[in-house]
Design a protein that fits this description.
Elements lengths: L5 E12 L2 E12 L3 E5 L6 H9 L6 E6 L2 E2 L10 E4 L11 H11 L4 H14 L16 H14 L4 E5 L7 H18 L2 E6 L2 H7 L2 E6 L2 E6 L1 H6 L4 H4 L6 E7 L5 E3 L5 E2 L10 E6 L5 E3 L7 E13 L2 E8 L2 E8 L11 E6 L4 E4 L2
Parallel strand pairs: 3-8, 3-9, 6-7, 7-8
Antiparallel strand pairs: 1-2, 1-4, 4-5, 9-10, 11-12, 11-14, 12-13, 14-20, 15-19, 16-17, 16-19, 17-18
The structure holds adenosine-5'-diphosphate (ADP) and magnesium ion.
Length: 355
């Protein structure tokens, strides 16, 4: 499949605040129509990056290109892009219709066509048509979020930017809105650039994810790549619970784990690797009848279990270490707390990282 040409390109983009680089030498291409998410902990530079992309701030050095044209100094209102603010930025005491039609009104569209477009957008955003005349203050949090997005779409921007729009919304509604946003992306075919501190949220919606740490983009990939092939310990630990074992490579090609004393068969070893961490996702660990049933096995004691909805997580203590093992509920382990157990995994299911 041919790569779509980039709609946005960042070339060595840097933003200094005094002596501190909030965004540090970022190179990135975002493809037309892509749902690209920037994820990273608080303070990693996500908002600073988005503000530069949206034209609310200018880079200290480097270039931002929109379809190949340098736009570093083009102000936000001159760009064919739109920032979707949290629902707080809606006009209070105005109706849903007035809020959505605002961009069309300033563009001079006549009332009938404004209303037709507003109703169309309400349909897309799954807002009942009867809400057209409803005061936005009487809408729920989730409805207001949809109105804010409908208003942004009324500008008909080429790129929509989102800065943690769902962070203040409770869990269940947030999960619904994540999926709706992905559906809306699919229907509008526009480019979405989204920011969140939750890699879990990023995974649900995104075509690609860029992980930020201290102003740098440390990994860019599909959700699948980020999950199954994290390039650093930092990225591997960013999503869910993960088992991370400090290991060193012995001369015979086996890994030595200080924590468990075990000697382990490694996954493919990166060039020049001598010591680092072995990462094993909890779902790749199995309870074994005997040690020979997997490439790698360790003996321990079942310490506790946690019900995580459809999955159950087991905590197994091995030497000085603790392993998390996860099974689907219908494949639950039948052992009792304090049982001696053997757990294991196949070499190919682990990942070696250096950082
Ligand atoms: P994030 O959105 O990932 O939480 P930010 O982009 O808001 O991170 O901030 C990145 C870093 O830049 C932080 O250390 C923050 O304190 C600093 N920073 C952000 N904006 C400013 C500013 N206007 N002046 C000085 N420092 C700033
Ligand atoms: Mg931020």
């Amino acid at each position: 499949m041919a790569e779509a040409s980039p709609i946005l390109s960042l070339k060595s983009v840097r933003k200094m605040f005094g002596a501190h680089a909030a965004v540090d030498s970022i190179d990135l291409d975002i493809a037309e129509g892509e749902f690209f998410t920037i994820v990273g902990p608080s303070g990693s530079g996500k908002t600073t990056m988005l503000r530069m992309l949206a034209g609310m701030d200018t880079p200290t050095s480097g270039d931002i290109l929109l379809r190949g044209e340098r736009i570093n100094d083009l102000p936000a209102n001159k760009r064919p892009t739109c920032m979707v603010f949290q629902s707080l930025a809606l006009f209070p005491h105005r109706t849903v219709g007035q809020n959505i039609e605002f961009p069309l009104k300033i563009r001079g569209e006549v009332p009938e066509s404004r209303k037709a477009r507003a109703l169309q957008l309400m349909d897309l955003l799954r807002l009942p048509q009867s809400y057209y005349a409803k005061n936005v203050l009487k809408c729920s949090g989730g409805e207001r979020q949809r109105v804010a997005l409908a208003r942004a779409l009324a500008y008909d921007p080429q790129i929509l930017f989102f800065d943690e729009p769902l962070s203040a919304i409770d869990y269940k509604l947030r999960k619904t809105l994540e999926k709706e946003l992905k559906d809306i992306h699919r229907e509008t075919k526009k480019t979405f650039v989204y920011i969140t501190h939750s890699l879990e949220e990023a995974m649900v919606m995104s075509d690609r994810i860029g992980v930020m740490r201290a102003g740098k983009l440390v990994q860019v990939g599909t959700p699948h790549q980020i999950y199954s092939a994290p390039n650093t310990r930092f990225v591997s630990e960013f999503v869910g619970d993960v088992n991370v074992l400090p290991v060193s490579l012995d001369t015979d090609g086996r890994l030595h784990s200080r924590l468990t004393g075990a000697r382990l068969k490694p996954p493919p070893v990166p060039e020049g690797f001598s010591e680092g961490h072995l990462v094993i996702r909890p779902e790749f660990l199995r309870f074994l009848a005997k040690a020979a049933d997997a490439d790698n096995a360790v003996s321990g004691r079942l310490y506790n279990e946690y019900v995580l909805g459809s999955r159950i997580q087991y905590q197994v203590r091995v030497g000085e270490g603790v392993f998390a093992v996860e099974k689907l509920r219908q494949q639950a382990f039948t052992g009792k707390l304090d049982d001696d157990v053997i757990i294991g995994w196949d070499a190919k299911d682990a990942i070696l990282v250096t950082d």
